[in-house]
Amino acid sequence: YANGGSLRDHLQSKQKDGFYKILWIDLIRIAKEITSGLAHLHDKNIVHRDLHSMNILINNNVALITDFGISKHLDGITNGAASSRAILAYVEPQQCAQSEEKVDEINKKSDIYSLGVLFWELTSGVPPFHNLHSENIAFKIASGVRENIIDNTPLGYAKLIESCWSADPNQRPFLNKVLDELNRLSTETTVEFIINRINSSNKNILANSNISVDEVFSKNMPTSTISEFSERRNIGKAGKKCN
């Protein structure tokens, strides 16, 4: 049990009157806690393989990484059937482009990509690509498209996000470098809040359905997995052959 719910719950609680607002010191603290937790796993040669904001829990105001159902020990021990259960919007482009049979070919840099997406979500307050269907998410990621950096994001933090979600795994930083940069940003950045306006498409959904913004995001969460996408893609290919 986590008394603060998931990270996604926590970020949604900061949305009011069409705006998301978070203290910079809180954002950096959460980013460092997630990074430190991931570093602990990587130090033990474990890749999580399924990092997203529903797998980060807030307990006593501390962010904790959970759900190791498909984690993988790089020495060969794997929990769960396959990393194809991972959530598409947080998955590196290599996994979106590969067939399901090759989806296990991941390493620590795969987690770094997901970490970068989480860093972006801390600034936006909403899940990545939350307004897109899973097929569009996969093709966008595989073709190099990323979410837009939120306007008032400090430059150093924006560069960190972009380096973490680089299409080239070799360009993604190691976690010790990520922590060093977060520590630097926590002392050198003077911004007080990060504020993001919830986009108009979500407002239209809200007006048409009379449901809350929270309900919009909970019903449009990017929860499609790689295996589900691969299955639909294979069905589509089979259909084309029949024609």
Helix content: 40-55%
Would you state the CATH class?
Answer: Mainly Alpha
Give the averaged pLDDT, no decimals.
80
How do the SSEs run, as a string of H and E? HEEHEEEEHHHHHEHHH
- Spatial order of the strands forming the largest sheet: 1-2-7
Amino-to-carboxy terminus distance: 52 Å
State the shape: globular
* Overall radius of gyration: 18 Å
- What is the assigned CATH homologous superfamily? Transferase(Phosphotransferase) domain 1
CATH architecture: Orthogonal Bundle
| Strand segment count | 7
Which strand-content bin applies to the residues? 5-15%
Count of DSSP helices?
10
Number of domains: 1
Low-pLDDT ranges = 79-83, 202-221, 235-243
Organism: Dentiscutata erythropus
Domain Protein kinase: 1-194
GO molecular function: ATP binding; protein serine/threonine kinase activity
Protein name: 25692_t:CDS:1
